[in-house]
Design goal:
Shape: globular
Strand order of the largest sheet: 1-2
Organism: Araneus ventricosus (Orbweaver spider)
Oligomer: single chain
Protein name: Mos1 transposase HTH domain-containing protein
Structural class: mainly alpha
InterPro entries: Transposase-MT_Hybrid
Largest sheet: 2 strands, antiparallel
Order of helices and strands: HHHHEEH
Number of helices: 5
Number of strands: 2
């Protein structure tokens, strides 16, 4: 029986995918192996197929490429408190005020 790891990084999982794809495992076999070790929700089969294709095309970098204009917000920031209000409540109120002008835009 395989013991599941409780903590792991995305880079670690991608390294495992690269290793198994180099050994000519199929994407289904890689998904089974990765799921057995890291848990059932670690990486979907389509994502494994994508990464296998990247590695087959010669990619060696395991980190995610930076994309312009993309931001990530961690849960502790999203659900933290600001002056007694949750950030998510503040974002909802700001979103409503910023998006009101879109109804009048015509293409």
């Amino acid at each position: 029986m395989v013991r599941q790891l409780e903590t792991y990084s995305s880079v670690e999982v991608r390294g495992t995918v690269r290793f198994l794809s180099t050994k000519h495992f199929t994407s289904t076999e890689i998904h089974s192996e990765v799921s057995a070790v890291y848990g059932p929700h670690v990486m979907s089969r389509p994502v494994i197929v994508k990464w296998c294709q990247h590695f087959e095309d010669g990619r060696t970098d395991l980190t995610d490429a930076e994309r312009q204009g993309r931001i990530t917000v961690s849960k502790h920031i999203r659900y933290g408190a600001l002056d007694g209000r949750h950030y998510s409540q503040q974002w909802q109120s700001e979103r409503r005020t910023h998006c009101t002008g879109f109804g009048s835009i015509r293409l």
